[in-house]
């Protein structure tokens, strides 16, 4: 089952089973799986950084944007 949690006008978390993906605008920028959190290593806008930090991913391990993009393919 898919669950969507809206945090603001431009960021949401999509839960798919044990995976949680944070989208800033339409871009996946962070995710958590089995208690481990990851965020993109790509530098986006100040606003996207605020989305990542406000949703609890400030101290997450960095992964490539490609890895995040592949999560939704």
What does this structure look like?
Helices cover 22% and strands 47% of the residues. The chain is an alpha+beta fold. The chain has one domain (2-71). Strands 1-2-3-4-5-6 form a six-stranded mixed sheet, sandwiched between helices.
Task: Write a concise synopsis of the structure shown.
The radius of gyration is 11 Å and the shape is globular. It has helices at residues 46-54, 65-71, and strands at 2-8, 11-16, 19-24, 27-33, 36-40, 61-63. It is of the alpha+beta class and 73 residues long.
Search tags:
alpha+beta; 6-stranded mixed β-sheet
**Average of per-residue pLDDT values:** 95
The total count of strands amounts to 6
Taken as a percent bin, the fraction of beta residues is over 45%
* Elements, N to C (H/E): EEEEEHEH
* Rg from alpha-carbon coordinates: 11 Å
How far the N terminus sits from the C terminus, by CA atoms, comes to 17 Å
Tell me, briefly, the overall form: globular
| Helix/strand class | alpha+beta
Let me know the largest β-sheet: 6 strands, mixed
Number of domains: 1
Question: What share of residues is helical?
Answer: 10-25%
Structure annotation, total helices? 2
Topology summary:
Blueprint: E1 2-8, E2 11-16, E3 19-24, E4 27-33, E5 36-40, H1 46-54, E6 61-63, H2 65-71
Parallel strand pairs: 5-6
Antiparallel strand pairs: 1-2, 2-3, 3-4, 4-5
């Amino acid at each position: 089952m898919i669950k969507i949690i809206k945090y603001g006008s431009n960021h949401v978390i999509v839960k798919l089973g044990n995976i949680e993906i944070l989208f800033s605008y339409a871009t996946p920028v962070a995710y958590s799986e089995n208690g481990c959190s990851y965020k993109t290593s790509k530098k986006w806008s100040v606003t996207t950084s605020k989305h990542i930090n406000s949703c609890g991913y400030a101290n997450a391990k960095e992964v490539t944007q490609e890895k995040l993009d592949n999560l939704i393919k």
